[in-house]
Design goal:
The structure holds two protein chains of two kinds.
Chain A (H helix, E strand, L loop, with lengths): L3 H4 L4 E6 L6 H11 L7 E5 L18 E3 L4 E5 H5 L5 E11 L2 E8 L3 E3 L7 H15 L3 E7 L13 E7 L6 H15 L10 H4 L5 E5 L4 E6 L15 H8 L5 E4 L3 E2 H8 L8 E4 L5 E2 L2 H9 L3 E4 L4 E8 L10 H12 L3 E3 H4 L1
Parallel strand pairs in A: 1-8, 1-9, 2-4, 2-8, 9-17, 12-14, 13-15, 14-16, 17-18
Antiparallel strand pairs in A: 3-7, 4-6, 5-6, 10-11, 10-12
Helix pairs in contact in A: 5-10
Chain B lengths: L4 H4 L6 H6 L6 H9 L6 H17 L10 H8 L6 H8 L6 H20 L14 H7 L17 H12 L5 H23 L2 H27 L5 E2 L3 E7 L2 H9 L7 E6 L4 E4 L6 H16 L8 E4 L4 E5 L12 H17 L4 E6 L7 H15 L4 E6 L10 E9 L2 E8 L9 H7 L4 H16 L1
Parallel strand pairs in B: 1-5, 4-8, 4-9, 6-7, 7-8
Antiparallel strand pairs in B: 2-3, 2-5, 9-10
Classes of the chains: A alpha/beta, B alpha/beta.
């Protein structure tokens, strides 16, 4: 049974799909179906809305999330009322989401639910902590998506499973390249430099940082308004000339874009500064820019990193087109050096 | 229209600070407190304070409730605002699992606290017995905060669910059958709970009141507040202080000087004295105390006796009048005008006017101030007016700030027999380090005038 034993080592797991209809829910069901519930307690929730009965875009029917007895789940008030499972309600949260308050319950029978969960990374982290301390949950599973624009990042989980498939691209080559690049980004190493808490909590901006004396100074207000440099913050003018060279790191609180990366490496033969982002979901650069940057000695690292455990593929696209499953798995495995499974074969 | 606490918070006299130091546990208590009206009725205020007095001794060092503080706090933290759910059930709507869960949680909190305080006599709080509601929603007697339609509600449901569990794959038909029975049980439960509606509501308000009274009593101790007397003819504060300003000063390592003040009903009190003598702060603090008094809070003074009023009129110069498109003079005139309107209609009011007509020429300003005193004499008002003008031959009490003595400000208020207002502005400006060229010239001007 692939990768289930591996999961028992972790406290939290997120399952993310590269695109809609890449078999993420199938993958989640596969995991939920095989986890040894007699040994560990499991909790499930989602980033934003998930578990629609029919696909909201293509109107094709979608698999539902199936829970077994004993699993804890958190969903919104609206979806709790629509559940098709016998479950014991154990907590109603005060915090409101767009679909009502968050409800945590324990499955008494097996059945089907729609999941919608904490809307931000912080509340997601709180959710994991609460389930651990209040209900002794050993493994928290987060159903998440990369394509979905969500302020919550699945990267806060310790482990990750990536779902990809024909829905992303119908050409095997492109599918493999796109998936391999995401895998590469997920694998970006955690920064060895200590980023001070003060900086890590900054909600926005691009910052110069000295990892030795933990000084930092603002560089740009945001990755999207590169022209406007900070003004009026501290003695920035003095900093500029004298201290520019002493910074060894650039910390980007928000998105790392193509434009920003190009600007940072502009006119430099060799890039000595390390670029640090929060996690891989904040990186929005093309493979070309990325390789160019790395080639010139640049280094990108993250504050938070999930261990990618496996990649699952769905060879069938929502419009009925099907790729050769065996070939796809083999080629992708060769390219990324990680086990690749066609969950539909196992299910 | 009665003034609610929510509105009072926005009046710039420091009520918000008092609210922020109030340590309420449940969000329900916050909502209920904010919706409370400012009490005008003497007896209701008396009741508020007899309750607070009771809690003051219960929460004191040797108080019986003090030892249970942590446990009660823990239970109160589970108290939620479920008034909407209760209302729905009272209207005959069938409750869903979430609502039933909420009611079960309330009943549990109620019963837990009830058993904690069963040996203590508390007059202010009476918790109803919700054991029967709990039995309804917890048929297995687990007494933990969780809920679903338990198997023990129906033998038929139990058998169906067992079948459902033994099915290998998900069985839509069994599930549907279960859901039908569950709905019937929910309808039955809702109907029974409906008959407990008034008890549940009583529990909700009493628990919130317990929270509020505990918080007020703790605030009494932490901020050194006192319980006031309700008075008829004079307002009297001994050792009056402003908690917010005291806190700010204490952070800078400075002391707050308490003051004493007495105001007679129907006879305006005129406060004169140098700049920076705390006159405006005194007015604001008295407005603060009046609101706290009529909301049943502890009063920031060593002792206080206060007359209940229907309205508080505070006219102070630092309002944001420009937003309304009024000049500072126009805004002030309008404020005083509305106060005069109310008092002439026979409303019992507290009227606090900080330096009326200060922004206009001294001759007219003085006349306006004198006329204001004449209007307020003999009305149903407690009034204070501060001024820098020299006011003569009026029926009013007079006090002044002791003022600048040996380079130090003495903020105490003393009786004033002098008709002249003290001229200390230049000395005070000097102590602030203001440009000496300017001040010396002003001094020369002043001497010239005196010689004339």
């Amino acid at each position: 049974m692939p990768f289930i034993q591996e999961l028992l080592k972790y406290r939290s797991l997120s399952i993310v799909g590269l695109e809609k209809n890449t078999g993420k829910t199938e993958c989640l069901n596969y995991v939920l179906d095989r986890l040894p519930l007699d040994k560990i307690r499991v909790g499930v929730s989602s980033i934003g809305l998930d578990g629609e009965r029919t696909d909201q875009v293509t109107r094709s029917s979608k698999p539902e999330i199936i829970l077994r007895e004993g699993v804890l789940f958190t969903t919104s008030e609206k979806h709790y009322k629509q559940r098709r499972i016998i479950s014991e309600l154990i907590e109603v949260e005060d915090q409101h989401t767009s679909l009502g308050r968050l409800i945590t319950a324990r499955a008494v029978s097996s059945g089907k639910v729609m999941l919608s969960g904490p809307p931000s990374s912080q509340s997601l982290r709180r959710w994991i902590d609460r389930l651990k301390t209040n209900y002794n949950v050993d493994l928290c599973i987060i159903d998440g998506a990369l394509s979905r624009l969500s302020p919550a990042s699945p990267a806060i989980s310790e482990a990750m499973i990536l779902a990809t498939g024909a829905a992303l691209s119908m050409s095997i080559n492109e599918l493999i390249n796109k998936t391999a690049f995401t895998v590469e980004l997920i694998g970006i190493e955690k920064s060895k430099k200590k980023i001070s808490d003060l900086l890590a909590e900054k909600p926005s901006g691009v910052w110069n940082y000295n990892s030795l004396n933990r000084n930092f100074s603002p560089l740009y207000e945001s990755a999207f308004t590169l022209e406007r440099e900070f003004n009026g913050v501290g003695n920035e003018g003095d900093h500029k000339k004298s201290a520019q060279s002493e910074f060894d790191t650039i910390f980007i609180s928000g998105a790392l874009t193509d434009r920003l990366l190009k600007k940072l490496s502009l006119g430099k033969r060799e890039i000595t500064k390390e670029v640090v982002v929060r996690d891989f979901t904040k990186i929005f650069i093309t493979p070309l820019t990325y390789r160019n940057f790395i080639k010139r000695g640049g280094k990108i690292s993250v504050l938070q990193r999930s261990n990618l455990i496996a990649v699952c593929v769905n060879p069938v696209s929502p419009n009925g087109y099907s790729l050769d499953s065996n070939m796809l798995c083999k080629e992708l495995e060769a390219k990324i050096g990680l086990p690749v499974y066609d969950i539909f074969n196992y299910n | 229209m009665a003034l609610r606490f929510r509105k009072i918070l926005d009046i710039p006299c420091g009520v918000r600070y008092m609210y922020s130091t109030l340590n309420l546990i449940s969000p329900l208590s916050e909502t209920i407190l904010l919706d409370n009206k400012m009490e005008v009725d003497r007896e209701k205020i008396a009741l508020l304070y007899s309750n607070l007095q009771e809690f003051k001794s219960l929460m004191g060092k040797e108080g019986e409730l003090n030892f249970l503080k942590e446990k009660i706090t823990l239970h109160l933290s589970h108290l939620k605002d479920i008034r909407n759910s209760l209302k729905r059930i009272s209207e005959g709507v069938i409750a869903d699992d979430i609502e039933l869960f909420e009611i079960k949680s309330l009943a549990l909190v109620n019963q837990n606290i009830k058993s904690l305080i069963k040996n203590i006599t508390i007059k202010a709080i009476e918790l109803p017995d919700l054991e029967h509601v709990l039995d309804l929603l917890d048929p297995d007697g687990n007494r933990i905060t969780s809920f679903y339609i338990y198997d023990s509600y129906s033998q038929e449901l139990k058998e169906l669910r067992e079948k459902l569990k033994n099915e290998k794959s998900y069985n839509e038909e069994f599930f549907y059958k279960c859901a039908l029975i569950e709905d019937k049980i929910r309808a039955k439960l809702s109907k029974e709970i409906k008959s407990y509606y008034s008890l549940l509501e009583e529990s909700l308000y009493n628990l919130a009141n317990l929270d509020i009274l505990m918080a007020k009593a703790l605030q009494l101790h932490s901020l050194n507040l006192s319980i006031p007397e309700i008075s008829n003819s004079t307002v009297n504060y001994k050792g009056l202080f402003n908690p917010e300003v005291e806190y700010i000063l204490s952070k800078e390592g400075r002391d707050y000087q308490n003051t004493d003040i007495t105001i007679n009903f129907g006879k305006p009190l005129l406060i004169t004295g140098s700049n920076m003598g705390g006159k405006s702060l005194t007015l604001k603090t008295i407005a603060l105390c009046q609101y706290l008094f009529q909301m049943g809070f502890g009063i920031p003074a060593n002792s206080a006796s206060i007359i209940p009023v229907q309205e508080v009129h505070l006219s102070s110069g630092d309002d944001e009048d420009y937003k309304k498109g009024l000049s500072s003079f126009a805004a002030e005139m309008k404020r005083i005008d509305s106060m005069i309107n109310r008092v002439s209609k026979g409303y019992q009011i507290l009227s606090l006017t900080d330096e009326p007509a200060r922004t206009t020429n001294p001759a007219e300003g003085k006349a306006l101030t004198e006329a204001l005193i004449d209007i307020l004499v003999g009305t149903k008002s407690v009034s204070i007016i501060t001024t820098h003008y020299t006011i003569e031959n009026r029926i009013c009490d007079r006090i002044r700030v002791k003022g600048f003595i040996d380079g130090k400000m003495d903020y105490s208020l003393v009786e004033d027999s002098m008709k002249e207002t003290p001229a200390e502005a230049l000395n005070i400006a000097e102590s602030l380090g203001i440009n000496s060229l300017w001040l010396d010239l002003a001094r020369k001007e002043l001497e010239k005038n005196i010689k004339k």
